[in-house]
Amino acid sequence: QRVLWLHGLAGSRKSTLSTTIANIFREQGCLGASVFFNRDLEESSQPRSIIKTIVYQLSSFDNRIGAAITTSINTMPSILQSPLHIQFRKLLVKPLSTLPTSASPIVLILDALDECGGAQDRR
C-alpha cells in the first residue's frame, strides 16, 4: 500500500537516488532488502532469483521474518522451485502478514526493475 515509484528518463539519476535512500534506511535500521538490477550483468537481471534474494535479505534483517519464512519452506519444501508468483505469496506475503505491526517500516528497494527479465517476467 505504501509504494514510492521513481520513474524518469534514462540517466536522470534514479539509481543514484535509490542508492542514497537505501543507505539512509540502512543507517536507520529499516532497510529490509535492496535489489539493484542490471541488464548488462546476466546474474543481476534474472527474475528467477529475485524472490530468493529478497527472502534471504529479509531473513537476515529480522529473526521473526526469518522464522516465518523458514516455517513456509518447511511446510512446502518445493516452494523454492515453484513459479515466482507462488514464491512471492508463500515466502513474502504470507510470512510478512504474520508479523505484528511495528512502529518502524521495513523498506524494500528494487532499482531498475525494468532491467529484470522481460515484460512478462515483471508482470
Automatic annotation (TrEMBL):
Cited SUPFAM superfamilies: P-loop containing nucleoside triphosphate hydrolases (SSF52540)
Record's keyword terms, sorted: Repeat
Domain named Nephrocystin 3-like N-terminal: residues: 2-120
Pfam family, one: NPHP3_N
Designated name of the protein: Nephrocystin 3-like N-terminal domain-containing protein
Lineage of the species this protein comes from: Eukaryota, Fungi, Dikarya, Basidiomycota, Agaricomycotina
